[in-house]
Each structure stands twice: as structure tokens, then as C-alpha cells.
What we know:
- The protein is α/β, with parallel strands linked by helices.
- The chain has 15 helices and eleven strands.
- It has helices at residues 21-30, 47-56, 75-88, 102-107, 115-130, 165-174, 186-200, 219-223, 227-234, 240-246, 252-260, 264-270, 273-279, 285-298, 311-321, and strands at 7-12, 35-39, 62-68, 93-97, 135-138, 143-147, 158-161, 177-180, 206-215, 281-283, 302-306.
- It starts with 6 loop residues before the first strand and ends in a 5-residue tail after the last helix.
- 50% of the residues are buried.
Amino acid sequence: MVESGAGFGISMDGRAPVADIPAQAQAAEAGGASTLWIACHLYLRDPITMAALALGATRRIKVALMAMSPYSAHPVFIAMAAATLEEMYPGRIILCLGAGAPADLKAAGIEATRPLVTISETVKICRALLAGEMVNFEGQVFHVAGRRLANGGRNVPIVLAASRAKMLQLAGRETDGVLISAATSPPFVKACIEQTASGAADRPFRKLGIVYAKLGATEKQGIDPIRRPIGFVLRGAHHAENIRLSGAQLDQAALAAAYAAENWSEVDRLVSDDVVRRHAACGTPRQVKARLEEYRAIGLDEVILGGMDDAPSIAAALAAARGQTT
């Protein structure tokens, strides 16, 4: 089970130089973060390497592999990675599964077919292998014949990254928690949590959400640096409902085209101040804290701060989240 009462986590998206990972992890731990959520984005930095560096540089903080996709790595390999990290750093690993960003999969020539079946089978295979079981699994997508992990018997919680109704319900039924994507508005986060409720019933189940956070002396200084990361997320067609519920005006097709063309001035124009305000926590420390409290009030068990790519920013964001000054 994912630990309760966690408070705040930090998301690392793989954009920063890998040599910076230890310092960022140490800043997160010193600032009181409970978990580092290390993203698996195709074409960015390898999350397993990043996780090993972060774990080696810290003493207590948990590390989540987020969100490992069975379309780019077989469930057996995913379970191997989680079990191996858990073997070296017991009690500190969380496995987060997800289909992956559609645009990134497409750019790698990967077709994400039958996502519900694929993810459900991945959860079952990973859970059985991590538990140390001899696995004989004949699914519609995956087949595992009479094998077990050499280092199984690992207590690794499994969380599902989800944003659509059926995947959210799957998370509630079959996993230990749900992770809601960055750049999601409070109304959308609330809707996601509600859709996991029936599946989770009365068993322990964690609600986790990434919120881009950026500090500045003024609101604009907080907003400007976060436009492109937010645009990267919101360009995906699967965020249409998120944008609709937020009330923002955003041309997703134009944003996707601008991103593909690396037309950064157009990306900055499309991701307006209003879009950022509705999908992130940016501005002065007081503004950031107030916005983060909105997300906590919805019912998130852990608010995961994202959008920071250096240790000082991580330290400052965690301090602001707690109403402290650095």
C-alpha cells in the first residue's frame, strides 16, 4: 500500500542533465518531500537510471517509476526494473504504470492498441512477478509461461496513471492508487477522483496528482517559464475534457502543430496567462501556496510538484507549499 499522509512529492521529467539528479533528489528530501516521481517520457532521459541515481544520493525518500508503459517496455522488464531497485533500496520503490503519451508513442512508431486490456494485463503480470509467484499468464495481449523473478517477493505498490473514465475505474479496481497528470485543472482532478471511487470501495487507495509549480517575484515571472511544459502536456487530444472543465480557451490542434514545428513563439502565444492560471500553481510564494491548497482540498493525498529543473527551485517550491521562506 502507498503510504498515507504523504503531503508533497516532486516530479522529475527527464529534461535536466542527468548529472543534476543527485542534487535535485537531495533538495527534495531536505525539503520534506515524501516521493520523487521520475517520469518515463520517450526521447528524454531514462527513468531507471535517474531513479538509481536519486536513490543512491538520498536516505529515505521514496522513488516512483512514472509511468512505465507496456507499449515501450514489456511488463516482465518493467517488473524486473522495479524489483531490482527495491532489492537495493527496500521499502522505497513505487511502480506507476500508464499507456504513455500518445504523441510520443506515435513518434516512435508504436501503436497503443486495446489500452484497457493491455494495462489490466500489465498490472496482473507485474503484481504476480513482484510477489515472487511462478507466473503462467495467457492474456489477450501478453503471455508469460512458467517463470518467476530471480529477486521477487518485493512489496512494491502499483499506481496507475489515468485520465479517462474506464482507465480511472480500472485504477480503482486493480491498483493501489491513481496518478493524475500534470497540467490538469482542479475541476478535472475532482472528476477523476470521483470516477475511481466505486472501484476502490473501502480498501486503502491513494489519490495523487501532479501540479506544475513555478515561483517568481511576480505572477508573470512564475507563469512565463511554465508555458512550454504546460503546452507539451495540453497538446494531447486526451486532454480535451481537462481543458473543457477548466473553462480555458485553447486551440489544441494549433498547439500540437506549433510544438511539432518547434514554433516556440506560437506555443507561448497559445498557452496564455489564463490557461496557465487554470492548469498550474504559478506566481509569488503566497499565490503558489493558495493554488496548491485548492488541489489538496479536492482530496489529493499527495500533491506532486512539477515543472522544476534545478535544486534551488525544488527547495523554494516545497518551502512555499508549506508557507515557509527559503
